[in-house]
Design brief:
By secondary structure, this protein is of the alpha+beta class. Helix content is about 30%, strand content about 10%. A two-stranded parallel sheet has the order 1-2. The protein is elongated and about 45 Å long.
Length: about 80
């Protein structure tokens, strides 16, 4: 869907998707098992996701469109 929308709306609008991994929150409390599958060894934070959103919202990434960006600390499949 991301790539289709990017193609449809280019060049006036850039379309990208952010796919967050497990984020440290009340819902993720007690998910020590999830840490075993994350290469960086920690849960993500809302700030981790916000940094990517802020980057994509600037004029700097003006040649990035149709991309799916994983922000998950590289989650290994088990």
């Amino acid at each position: 869907m991301t790539r289709s929308l990017a193609k449809e709306l280019a060049p006036s609008i850039a379309v990208n998707a952010i796919c967050p991994g497990t984020i440290n929150s009340a819902l993720a409390a007690g998910t020590d098992e999830a840490l075993k599958g994350i290469c960086l060894g920690r849960l993500g934070t809302p700030e981790d996701i916000g940094q990517v959103v802020a980057f994509l919202a600037t004029v700097e990434p003006n040649f990035i469109t149709g991309q799916t960006i994983s922000v998950d600390g590289f989650q290994r499949s088990t």
